[in-house]
Amino acid sequence: MNTLALGPSWLEPNYLLEQFGLIGLLVIVFAESGLLIGFFLPGDSLLFTTGLLVTTGVLKNPLWLVCLLVVLAAIIGDQVGYLFGRKVGPALFKRPDSKLFKQENVEKAHDFFEKYGPKSLVLARFVPIVRTFTPIIAGVSRMNYRSFITFNIIGGVLWGAGVTLLGASLGKIQFVRTHIEAILILIVLISVVPIAVEYLRARSKNKKAALAEDGGQADGTPPASRGRHAKR
Known about the structure:
Layout: H1 13-34, H2 43-55, H3 63-88, H4 103-116, H5 120-123, H6 130-140, H7 145-170, H8 174-178, H9 180-218, H10 223-231
Helix pairs in contact: 1-2, 1-3, 1-6, 2-7, 2-9, 3-6, 3-7, 4-6
């Protein structure tokens, strides 16, 4: 089975699984779940492809074992991310940008965590990039450890086992096997929808704030003062 390259050929799910097998899959899930360098890895499409290859017999490992190990790798990855966040603390927000690190990714994850609280650990599992930084932000924020463990396990099971089982279920359908390239693209597009929505919301909010500020500067009256004058 050949899959369409959604990026560099060495990031194709099919290529990764052929070259590195189950061990490579677990390392990638672990890295994407809590290591700063793992944000670019193809988690969703990789898990879906894994389930598909297991159900079609290309991967010989039992599906239950694959799901169990993937869930453990995801949970342990988040755990490492949380401990790293607790250790580095606010220094993470002062770290300069580099090729593999962008401050805006940390800020997105922080905003996501602030908006959704503990349940962000579950929701973030299904959002690329954000899922890598959210457990780290939870550590920086010194989230209650018991709550972290609870939501970490829930998120790890829903994402790790859920996406893999989805791939295994749909992999039995001939149409899916025939159009796997389109399916993988669809998965990627769906997974980035939350990021696009948040980006558009933030952009709209910033535009409204800028227009309100410009309006106040145009008549020389601060917005708050204009409101008071209008009431009079």
